[in-house]
Amino acid sequence: MSSLEENKRIDTLYRMYVRDLFSYALNLGFDRDTSMDAIHDVFCKICADKKLPEKIANPRFYLLRAMKNRLLDLYKLRKEIPGLSPETLAEEIPFTVQVTMEDRLIEQEEQEKIRLKVEQLLGTLTDRQREIIYLRYTLDCDYEEIAQLMHITLPGCRKLFHNAIVKLRKNPSFAFLLLFLIG
Predict the structure, then answer these.
(1) How many CB atoms within 10 Å of residue 177?
(2) Domain segments of the chain as ranges
């Protein structure tokens, strides 16, 4: 593959996934600048290893995992705690879901009510449960990808997801949330 073709492939990957990566980083609680820096670090790594784009079987998953790992590294540097494992760090970072809608919809009172209801429902979950719901329904990740991103086993991933759904089902507004997430 020529250098020009490689650059076009990397540019295409960036354009396709930058919004998902940015949104995921913000939901993990990182600020805009740190989020963009981490995205650029991930793509710099891809550019440095010219053969890497060819080796990536599932680009979206690779980028999400690389992004989370880079953010964990940045978080670890800020905390200045040597020797923390990715699993410990992954559990320590809060995950918040900020429901975003078009500016014109946010201005409408009915849309604001919907947003508040969704946030209230998701607020009943733990950080890890919110993260797994976000990864499953918003980013459409499968259980294997989620398990790797969250540094948990596949059975642990399924159990965490199940517990989150059970907790949400207990809420009378669960059907509303389900329609919102799927729609």
Answers:
(1) 19
(2) 3-92, 103-182
**Which one of 1.10.10.10, 3.90.220.20, 1.10.443.10, 3.40.640.10 gives the CATH number of domain 103-182?**
1.10.10.10
User: What does the alpha-carbon distance between residue 45 and residue 47 come to, in Å, rounded to a whole number?
Assistant: 5
18: its two tokens = 């930058």
- Could you tell me the pTM of the whole model? 0.60
Contacts of 64 (CB under 8 A, 6+ apart): 20, 21, 24, 139, 141, 145, 149
* Strand (E) or helix (H) holding 118: helix 109-122
Task: Going from the first residue of the chain to its last (183 residues), give the mean pLDDT of each consecutive group of 10, the final group possibly shorter.
Answer: 74 88 87 91 84 76 90 78 56 58 54 73 88 88 94 95 89 66 56
